[in-house]
Amino acid sequence: MKAVRLHEYHQQPVVDEVAEPEIAGPHDVIVKVGGAGVCRTDLHIILGQWDEAMSPTLPYTIGHENAGWVHEIGSAVSNVAVGDTVILHPTPTCGLCRACRAGQDMHCEQSTFPGLDGTAGGMAEYLLTSARACVKLDPSTEPKDVAALADAGITAYHAVRKALPLLYPGTTAVVIGAGGLGHIGIQCLAALTAATVVVVDRNPDALALAGKLGADHAVQADGGQVDAVKDLTGGAGAEVVLDFVAEEGAENEGFAMTRPGGSYFVIGYGGTLVVPTLDVISTERNIVGNIVGTYNELAELMVLAQAGKVTLHTKTYPLDAAQDALHDLDTGQVRGRAILVP
């Protein structure tokens, strides 16, 4: 089968011919991939930024946002059957450790992260995963239309869900970055809260999309965005700032947009947040880290998606055009998410 594999850091992945995966354990599931999201994390992987954290052995198949159809199942699999349409939680988990028992399965002590940790990912024709990762979908669902919800979607949803107790009517939520993750976060805020939503982005097209998705105010990131947010919030700043960029200075601007007692949620990454400790204690502002959401959150998000309340804006590419998709993402030519379709 064809698979998009990274051979060396700082070099583009290539499409190789590799053996199809095989069932090895009773809870294994092989999925025929119908859509694989192209994520900014894939760009970070190519640059070697995850090498120290994950120590993957090269070469390996990338791709951690996947949906498709069940192709084969292990002997103990009972939650899905061959032919079912599924979206896959990106981290197959053990179900037995303390984190899993507490419903925090994204912190599972035994989890793997296909496409990131050296385990073969989903930019391929077939993917080996676990029954615990499969969320069954309505059979009319097109995997390419929802694949990116498997990571980008639940990452955005996870952050918004954590912020819900802070976003009662009359509050303001700022979204920094209306791209692949941010445009999902805007829709989650619109679906789940009564907060006023302010979106900050440097791209006019992204701001126009944000308005269509439920943003109440659009702020051009032209150097005056912190003051613009302060003006919209009576000089105080927002109760919640959701930063889907968190690099190139956005991270320090995001903290500055947060009001006293407010919370700055970091979802994007790549930058360095520099905050004097006095500024933290004197204003009681919180800095909240966010990673991929839980299996339950993916299931909840798919309810919103199948009700039409969260819709991915996508640009599709054939598997052989993986390098084109990565280039377009890196150069800002993708509004929403790029999807590879084997």
TrEMBL record:
InterPro entries: ADH-like_C, ADH-like_N, ADH_Zn_CS, ER, GroES-like_sf, NAD(P)-bd_dom_sf, Zn_alcohol_dh
Gene3D superfamilies on file: Medium-chain alcohol dehydrogenases, catalytic domain, NAD(P)-binding Rossmann-like Domain
Similarity annotation: Belongs to the zinc-containing alcohol dehydrogenase family.
Name of the protein in question: NAD(P)-dependent alcohol dehydrogenase
Required co-factors: Zn(2+)
Annotated Pfam families: ADH_N, ADH_zinc_N
Keyword Transmembrane set for record: no
Signal peptide coordinates: none
One term of GO molecular function: zinc ion binding
Superkingdom of origin organism: Bacteria
Keyword Amino-acid biosynthesis: no
Record-annotated Enoyl reductase (ER) domain positions: 10-340
